[in-house]
Amino acid sequence: MFVSVSKAPPLLQINRLHRLMVGPLSLVVDEGDCLCISGASGSGKSLLLRAIADLDPHEGQALMQGVAATEIEPQLWRSRIGLLPPESYWWLPQVKNHFRNGMPLPLEQIGMSAEILDQPVARLSSGERQRLALMRLLSNRPRILLLDEPTANLDPVNTRRVEEVITSYRRENKAAVIWVSHDVEQVARVANRHYEMRDGGLHATEIEGRQWLS
Amino acid sequence: MVELSTVDLLIASLLVVLLALLSLRQQSNISRQLIIAAVRTAVQLTLVGLVLKVLFENATLGWVTLMALFMLFVAGREVMMRQERRFKGWWGYAAGTFSMFLSSFAITVFALVVILGNDPWYEPQYAIPLLGMLLGNTMSGIAIAMDRLTHAAWEQRHIIEARLMLGETANEAISGYRNQAVRSGMIPIINAMAAAGVVSLPGMMTGQILAGTLPVEAVKYQILIMFLVSAGTGLGTLAAVHIGASRLFDSRQRLCLDRLREP
């Protein structure tokens, strides 16, 4: 016996996305998903994220809750789908000038104090920049996070802090995360799905060190 | 007015030759460039003198328009060549040329019709030199501003894209660089106006005085020209930078640096 239930469209759906050597590939990401992507450098992981954020011209389409990127204003799409690039850039003199929407959560959670907001950007370390860039992204309250090696410059303690912040953000906001990571242990800590990028496609891979229960 | 003879000009040219000989000892090819430039000045200005003579004798709207368009297209090419990272293809030429057309032609016609009020309004003795002044200055302004804009877009591409990623519009992400570009395009004429008469006597006024015009009359024309040139440069620069800044992004507000040529 079947009961017909009209199922809500997935949070993010990618249909035959194609950009340079990436794709065409299709993917469905649901609320609460944390999907990790690994792969050799140059395999196109960053290109894939840029295409999803609609920063590069591409074929195919991405839909958020059934609404295609082309149906809404590009700046709206990009604030709902937050892309965090590996390198962060700052254009105003002080850190706080970049946070027009306020702080998404207390800075202590990423191992910093509020005093850093009054500092000139030039005085930040690369690790501080990276963590603050994540804060800046979260202050837009995106439903989908595209994170390109968000802990690359961080020590183990701060790496764990950032992982926890991202995981609790995902849970509290019913968000989804696509996370590019080379660290198999990190993947085991944060991901519920794992893919390897190879020959322009995403290949499902098991998460090492974790037993799947069927 | 003292009539200049060919001999007078030859004597003056000896100064350039002397300078070229002096530079010859410095093992640079500057003396060669100097001589070529001097010859070009003599030939080009003589030709223009002849063209203007014919044009003044055949003062029809058709000939004046033809001359004006020729000047516009040469200026457009000059604007394009002076930009290091100009737009590829047709746009590289059109953005600057169209902006110059918009500003220089509109201001020249305005000055001829409303201020000078000659009969006919396109009297070439006024129309061509006025347009030449406007094109010359607008050309520099647009070239500097466009060069600055495309340069900034290239140098600051990561910042522009970071701002797009954070949900800013293309307009928000580029506006700072756009304003800087307009500013740098207009600085030369602002400086020229501020220094006029105190630091330098503008060339046009000097020429008129040498040719026998009363200083007070020459000054009035120079003020008129300064105002027209600043309006023309400002409008042309605004238009060109506006066109350029929108051309840097596509309809999905993506930064399109592949539309710029490599230097």
Write the layout of secondary structure elements.
The complex is a heterodimer of chains A (214) and B (263).
Chain A: E1 12-19, E2 22-29, E3 34-38, H1 45-52, E4 59-64, E5 67-68, H2 74-80, E6 81-84, H3 126-138, E7 144-148, H4 156-172, E8 176-180, H5 184-190, E9 193-198, E10 201-204
Parallel strand pairs in A: 3-8, 3-9, 6-7, 7-8
Antiparallel strand pairs in A: 1-2, 1-4, 4-5, 9-10
Chain B: H1 6-24, H2 30-57, H3 61-81, H4 90-116, H5 124-155, H6 157-165, H7 170-195, H8 203-210, H9 215-247
Describe this structure in words.
The complex is a heterodimer of chains A (214) and B (263). Chain A has 214 residues and is of the alpha/beta class. Helices cover 24% and strands 25% of the residues of chain A. In chain A, strand 1 and strand 2 (22-29) form a beta hairpin. Chain A starts with 11 loop residues before the first strand and ends in a 10-residue tail after the last strand. Chain B has 263 residues and is an all-alpha fold. Chain B has helices spanning 6-24, 30-57, 61-81, 90-116, 124-155, 157-165, 170-195, 203-210, 215-247. The chains are: A alpha/beta (214), B mainly alpha (263).
